[in-house]
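If you are new to this repository, start here. Below is one unmodified record pulled from the training split, so you can see the exact layout before writing a loader.
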Amino acid sequence: MMRRVDSNRALRELVLACASGLLIQAAFGASCKTESQMNAVDRDALSIAARSLIRAVQSGDVQNLQTNTIAQVAADFGGIAASVQTLKPLVQQSTIIINNLYFLDASTEPAGNARTEFFCGTPVVVMNFNGLPPGTYALALAHATGVPQPQQISLVLSKSAENRWMLAGFFARPMLDAGHNGIWYWTSARAFAQKKMNWDAWFYYHLAANLLEPVDFLTSVNLQKLQHETDQVRPDNLPGAKPLIISANGSTYQVTGIDTSSALGSLDLEVNYIPSPAQADQLRDPPSARKQVMDVMTSILALHPEVHDAFHGIWVHASQGDASLFSLELPMDQIAALPAPGSISSSIAR
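And here is the target side for that same chain:
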């Protein structure tokens, strides 16, 4: 799948935090105004600034963007510059729609505050920032549509001493994956969950979150509901901190990651494993390599036959460190037609 694009290290240190806990209106702390609560002058100034910055993204004008960025972020601008160059061909011909504007007043917050929270509107939208200096900020959430790969573009803005809105954070995320939006994946995930097809549900819920969350530091009632539903279906045997060990036909495979990918157009289940030294030797011979990764494919499908209905195929990568030794993608019907493993089991490594 297309991965999320965010900005550079300085920005992450400034703003990136994940909202958590109950959505309870605080009686203290920084204040927030939604677009409807702003006066016309503030709303228009913020909208104009956001559109101007997004136009610079559309044209790939990195210098203009950096000039209109706060000093702390502009000093380490490489991440944003790379993101803009990646995004430019996707959004150059798009129509920009500003969906939401939030005015964030942290001017009376004490310096050195570890965490600043904003509670915005009804239903409540919560934003959490780490290490946010006292000041006046804004968040602009926009959609770039009318193009094959529509994008969400989110800008964190900071008001300068000269009352200019400057870029303080830049985030871009796709609105579609394999041709479907977040609502479609959420609805499909619920259908899989009802059928106890938890592997399918788990990955579809994650796709929904990837497409529906504009930024990591914002949450809402709906996003919390999505997270709760996701937690309810989490499979027990997913690789994470420890690999998943699959044993099939006398061979053992150390699976380090399972995710989704639409890099080839359709939605595939993507599997990464680390071959043993003997398996790495086999990967030097193309026929042996092909058989080895197909054994991984058939093992995954035998252990979790429900993935046949949710994914176009399985894409397997055999890697050592940063080096890819062999990879292969096959459609589900071709994998299902291969001989099934005679003896198979799986467990999380201890």
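Two things worth knowing about this chain: Residues 220 and 303 are 36 Å apart (CA to CA). The longest helix spans residues 40-59.
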